[in-house]
Amino acid sequence: MPQTADDLDAVAVRTWCSLALEALGRERAAIDAINVYPVADGDTGTNLYLTVESAAGAVEAVFAGHETGASVPALADAVRAMAHGALIGARGNSGTILAQLLRGMAGVLAEGQDADHLRLALTRAATAARQAVAHPVEGTVLTVATAAAEAAGRTAGDPSARAVVQAAYEGARTALDATPGQLAVLGRAGVVDAGGRGLVTVLEALVEAVSGEAPEHGTWVTPDIVPVTTAAADDCAAGGPQDGPAFEVIYLLEAGDDAVDRLRTRLDGLGDSLVVVGGDGLWNVHVHVDDAGAAVEAGVEAGRPYRIRITHFGADRVHQHHGEPAQRGVVVVVPGPGLSGLCSEAGATTVLARPGEPPASGELVDAIRRAHAREVVLLPNDAELRHTAAAAAEQARTEGIRVALIPTRAAVQGIAALAVHEPDRSFDEDVVAMTAAAGATRYGELAVAERQSWTMAGICQAGDILGLIEGDVAVIGEDVPGTARAVVDRMLAAGGELVTLVLGEDVPDALADALEEHVREGYLAVDTVVYRGGGQGTPLLIGVE
After folding, report:
1. Number of neighbouring beta carbons within 10 Å of residue 294
2. pTM for this prediction
3. Residue 431: helix, strand or coil by DSSP?
4. Residue spans of beta strands (DSSP E) within 166-261
5. SS3 of 68, please?
6. Is 445 helix (H, G, I), strand (E, B) or coil?
7. How far apart are CA 160 and CA 288, in angstroms?
8. How many alpha carbons fall within 13 Å on the CB side of residue 374?
9. Alpha-helical runs (H) found in 90-183
10. Which of 129, 120, 130 has its CA nearest to residue 168?
11. Concatenated DSSP letters for 492-517?
């Protein structure tokens, strides 16, 4: 149930994130459809959803840490988690600006939760967002954020937090309705600003989180929204943003303030739509450029860039709008670029899951769309992704795509399923065969112990090599080759016909050669196949069918 107290405490922040995520999920497609500025690439709603999803996940993690105790997290912990989650998960121009808005609010709300702090938080948010954008433009989300802050400021003296957030929401709606008259590209397309509409949605969720009631829309009626076709968007933007840089570059950056100031200057000279948000050594950088490599190199000179995303606008539009969909596709989550190449060669659409960076549901939905098929089989290849994958499948189904989720728990199970995939047979028969192949594949892996701890195989020390089977530690060893042999022997003790080995990035081929020989000499009629995974965060993945 929504929070009903007239204050913004940690529970209300959690509720706010949940309601905002739910609302953006409902409105994502409509917001995508009116996205014509700064680039008509139809992803503003999706980017806002992914950004809030990351923020909500960070808040949930804070609450999870308090599950065993009687208390709830402090407001400061909740809002800081929200801001950090949005920062590291921000996508696109709109998501990056929203992350800065939330960061600006968090800095104030960490010190208090009453109406005065809320007013100041909204003002600080709008100011911070404008400062993060290299060249602010009126008629955008920045205008809507400023109007929200000004409307909240007019409630000065009112001790009700409900009154503050309601005023901010109403001010934002009024400003949103005016955006087509402020920005020519919006006026030509006959739509309001997509990012501004997303912010109104987030503020509407804030009103409900604080008051316990969804706000009355009153006379603030947003103009009728119609989807903007690619041709219309190009026409609207003729001579404008659509003729601009070819690439969107986004990355997280660990760097000091002085280095970031120099980075802003350099990136501003390379392209446009520059937004740099963050602080305290961690930044999210967003820019549109023709030379994506130069934008990344600038980040390397400033500090340590990571989670780099490069999108080619033209290729993305062509992929989204041209050609009839195939009958069937497969989407596979893979832990390294080697397996990504392998699965792509087999005709699958891949999602890369880097160590410690599991894909969000929005990324899986994007991959399902990229598969461009009427029927899609989804292979998450990780037990921890089960709920995320289920949410993605459900969202894709609402778009008319038939999705079957096979709950694969490891990459080797996904490889086994993909190996028996036959798009020419019926969907149900294909799913049954792939499910059976995955279920018949036992999986194991090697890992390096980070600290002393208790395991099912005994006490391990930092630096020990751990052999895991079906997710449980079965072997504690001193070196990779010996531990790998022990794990293979344990797995083959229950029988098997095929051993699959996926080598990590820095693991020598000699390990695979030695294991192949070990299997050949010790187990008759058992074959071995070897793949390079690369960047998967573990020395070796093992599958036995």
Report:
1. 15
2. 0.63
3. helix
4. 247-254
5. coil
6. strand
7. 42
8. 8
9. 92-109, 115-132, 141-153, 161-178
10. 120
11. HTT--SEEEEEE-TT--HHHHHHHHH
Number of Cβ atoms within 10 Å of the Cβ of 339: 27
Provide the token pair at 528: 């071995």
pLDDT of residue 69: 56
Q: Could you tell me the maximum CA-CA distance found in the chain, to the nearest angstrom?
A: 83
CB 272 within 8 A of CB 288: yes
| Spans in the chain with pLDDT lower than 70 | 1-6, 41, 67-70, 216-243, 313-323, 534-536
- How far apart CA 260 and CA 266 sit, in angstroms, is 10
Q: Which residues pair with 378 in a beta bridge?
A: 331, 405
Q: CA separation (Å) from 12 to 162, 206, 227, 425?
A: 12, 8, 34, 50
Cis peptide before 180 (omega within 30 of 0): no
**What is the rounded CA–CA span in Å between residue 66 and residue 495?**
44
Q: Name the residue with tokens 């105790």.
A: 69
Bridge-based pairing of strands 498-503 and 472-477 is unpaired
Among candidate residues 158, 180, 213, 220, the one with its CA nearest the CA of residue 34: 180
Name the token pair of 214. Answer: 């969804």
Residue 505: CA count within 13 A, CB half-sphere? 9
Q: Per-residue pLDDT tens for 176-229?
A: 999 999 999 999 889 999 999 999 999 999 999 998 888 765 433 344 444 444
